[in-house]
Write a structure and sequence with these properties.
The complex is a heterodimer of chains A (about 170) and B (about 550). Chain A is an alpha+beta fold and about 170 residues long. Chain A is about 45% helix and about 10% strand.
């Protein structure tokens, strides 16, 4: 049985939905485009909320449960907005051997949050990565998209201070 | 694109490059970029501009030169390699083109790290500009594709790959020729080629480096594979965590389409081929081929039982060839020089070279390509330059969360698929992490079990529940609260997971535990019986161990 489903209306007038629509169109509005569409939403909006998931699911004609399942299965997708700054600590093997747990411990103590959380003032989000592939520079930390190598506990504390004080 | 047109592009490019008498290559792969190599390149460009020598001195961004720990790396046309170059050093570097090298920046290249390498996959890395197809073509790029399309039958291409003895570089080591042959014999009008660039192993960055340094080589390998097995559509499944690799791949695909090396009727033959990117989203299990296929189809990346193998029923139910980045990167030189040429390198059962990402507690960290069969001792102490700070070697970890830790008495073992498997580890994709006496093997085993537990997709119970229980026991051992009974249970669980898990993730998850139990049993005993961590890692708050 083929049922006709009208194209759903975007959640808002926000121009960024046009980017999402473009990806959906490129995938022929087929269920196979789900991950690609979610990537575009996250790139444009920074995270995936229920509204976005519902819109993508309807556009690709997949159940909301499947969109939610995919969004929560993959680590790369986040359902919460990030803080103003993000600090990603690499927990790959090389970084682990060279002291990433100590870095993480210091940051947790300073910020008072666990990985995956954002400080209450929405300033800093703390994340961990499986491996950045910067193993030659272990331990590595990403401050707002910028990779820093051979990071010491003092250096990461110093950097965070700049964000939290300002 | 005809063979003549390709030759023309190559000739034009060589003539263009021949105009320059001086050349400065700056590494713009991710490792050096995070050490600000872009600003070094910009400064060099500016300096050349202000000296008015733009017409004879070329500043070029190139791929990875290997020694990532000493970046940013810069090489010059008079054969000098400079390390840790800063933007302010650019006048000195340019002065040295006609004079003496800048002594304080020179990185000696007559050391084993460079001398012991044999470059096939990485032959263009650090030499060509990864963002220009012309540079790749001038370095004999795409000649293997033309040769395959115009001079060889599909059978002959597969035979050549079989003759080379190339085995899958993703880790398991399945003979590539055999895989191609199976897919080519599968019946179906539509077949797919997939490149697995979801380098999920923590501690491995070979594929990323190849994609960032020489993306066209991977495309050429995929094109030849597509021709050989009769596929017309391809996907590269690449980690979203590698933005630079994605950017350069997109760029490479666009360029190849523009000159007609991708698209319909390539080189005037009936062969058509399209390549599209699919971004992974951070799931280690997607390195498993059936899980990867599910992910390309837009679903959760969960594996399914095999058979049917993807070679019969893969993407969208069609016959599908899946190989790793490094495997495809080996194809062009094999077709260009013949399978026999390739088979001269390596050991009896493991042919060719392998790229390793050397990291951890070792002097020289970075990317190296060595012939198969080299000993671990040579890798760690000659190429790697030994352990820093006068500490003692303890183990080298290969194969990531699916591999094992190899102790001192394995050091003289050759590095090939069989030897590593016999020692309780695996070749894996090529991550090699050196550990010294400051690492506790129980802690390392716990680290990998933690990884497998988080990454378990949850589809089959042995893996989902088993990894959780194993991690719980390892944690208890680390907290000095475990008993002999727990240790026995841990060993039982290892066997259980190995034999009953659905896919490679669960089946190999016990490897880090088994290999450390085998070689470092006394460390486990010390934790359980004496409530002591010999390395001083466990049982203390993390901040105080360094």
């Amino acid at each position: 049985m083929v049922s006709y489903v009208a194209k759903p209306v975007a959640p808002s007038q926000d121009k960024r939905w046009k980017l999402v629509d473009a990806t959906i169109r490129r995938q022929g509005a087929q269920p196979r485009g789900l991950i690609e569409a979610l990537h575009t939403v996250q790139e444009a909006f920074g995270y995936l909320d229920v509204q976005a998931l519902r819109y993508v699911a309807m556009s690709l004609r997949v159940p909301l449960s499947r969109a939610f399942g995919v969004a929560t299965f993959y680590h790369f997708f986040t359902l919460k907005p990030a803080g103003e700054h993000t600090c990603v600590i690499c927990m790959g093997t090389a970084c682990y051997i060279k002291g990433a747990p100590q870095l993480l411990d210091a940051v947790r103590k300073d910020l008072g949050i666990a990985p995956g959380e954002t400080t209450p003032d929405k300033k800093v989000s703390l994340l961990t990565a499986r491996c950045l592939g910067s193993c030659g520079l272990a331990p590595a930390v990403v401050y707002d998209q910028e990779v820093a190598g051979k990071v010491s506990t003092a250096a990461v504390r110093e950097h965070l201070k700049k964000w939290t004080v300002a | 694109m005809t063979p003549e047109e390709l030759d023309q592009i190559a000739e034009d490019e060589r003539a263009e490059q021949g105009k320059y008498t001086e050349r400065v290559n700056v590494c713009v792969a991710a490792g050096c970029l995070s050490c600000q190599s872009q600003s070094v390149k910009d400064a060099l460009d500016q300096e050349v501009g202000s000296r008015g020598t733009k017409d004879r001195c070329q500043v070029k961004g190139v791929g990875c030169m290997g020694l990532c720990s000493e970046g940013p790396l810069v090489s010059t046309s008079n054969g000098i390699l400079y390390k840790k170059v800063e933007a302010a050093d650019s006048p000195a570097v340019l002065d040295s083109l006609a004079g003496e090298p800048v002594a304080r920046l020179v990185c000696p290249t007559d050391v084993p790290f460079f001398q012991r390498q044999k470059k096939i996959v990485l032959e263009n890395s650090g030499v060509i500009d990864p963002e220009r197809i012309e540079d790749y073509i001038a370095a004999n790029g795409y000649t293997a594709l033309i040769k395959a399309l115009t001079e060889m039958s599909q059978r002959e291409v597969i035979d050549e790959v079989t003759k080379s003895g190339l085995r899958g570089r993703g880790g398991a080591g399945y003979p590539t020729g055999l895989k191609w042959s199976t897919v080519s014999k599968s019946v179906g009008a539509q077949k797919y080629v997939i490149c697995n660039a979801d380098e999920g192993d923590p501690g491995a960055f070979m594929d990323r480096s190849v994609l960032e340094s020489d993306p066209h080589r991977v495309l050429e390998g995929m094109l030849i594979a597509g021709y050989a097995v009769g596929a017309s559509e391809a996907y590269i499944y690449v980690r979203a965590e590698y933005p630079l690799a994605i950017k350069r791949l997109r760029n490479a695909i666009r360029q190849a389409e523009r000159v007609g090396l991708l698209g319909s009727n390539i080189c005037g033959t009936r062969f058509s081929f399209r390549v599209d990117l699919r971004l992974g989203a951070g799931a280690f299990v997607c390195g498993e081929e059936t899980a990867l296929i599910a992910s390309v189809e837009g679903k959760r990346g969960t594996p399914r039982p095999r058979p049917p193998y993807p070679a019969m029923e893969g993407l969208f139910g069609k016959p599908t060839l899946i190989n790793n980045v490094e495997t495809y990167a080996n194809i062009a030189p094999i077709i260009r020089n013949g399978g026999e040429w390739y088979a001269q390198v390596g050991t009896e059962k493991s042919k060719g070279t392998k790229v390793f990402a050397l990291a951890g507690r070792v002097e020289n960290t970075g990317l190296v390509e060595v012939p198969m069969g080299i000993s671990l001792r040579e890798m760690v102490f000659e190429i790697g330059g030994g352990i820093p700070e006068g500490r003692k070697f303890k183990a080298v970890q290969t194969g990531g969360p699916s591999g094992g830790c190899l102790p001192t008495d394995c050091l003289d073992m050759p590095v090939d698929y069989e030897s590593l498997a016999r020692a309780g580890s695996i070749m894996g994709s090529g991550g090699m992490i050196v550990m010294d006496e400051s690492s506790c093997m129980v802690d390392v085993a716990k680290y990998f079990m933690d990884f497998c537990m988080t990454e378990s997709c949850g589809k089959c119970i042995p893996c989902r529940v088993g990894t959780f229980q194993m991690r719980r026991i390892l944690e208890a051992i680390g907290n000095m609260t475990a008993t002999e009974q727990d240790l026995k249970l841990l060993e039982e669980l290892c066997e259980l997971l190995k034999h009953t898990s659905l896919c490679g993730l669960g089946q190999s998850a016990p490897n880090p535990v088994l290999s450390t139990l085998r070689s470092f049993a006394e460390e486990y005993r010390a934790h359980i019986q004496e409530h002591k961590c010999p390395a001083g890692v466990c049982g203390q708050p993390a901040g105080e161990t360094l």
